[in-house]
Design a protein that fits this description.
single chain, mainly alpha, 67% helix, elongated
Amino acid sequence: MSKDNNIRLATRIAQVYVANNALPASQVAALVRTLYAAISGLREDAAAASVEGGPTERPRETRK
């Protein structure tokens, strides 16, 4: 996804959060920045995992 999509998603999450929780106006920008960084980081991790072949599957444990 693009940077614009990350910004839109972070803004939407912040909007919903602020609508349902008390948050001083002075902290809204920091919330959006934090959300944007988290979303961007998740997307980078997902992209890296797909390049590396994805997560490895662990063998299932057998119970006796």
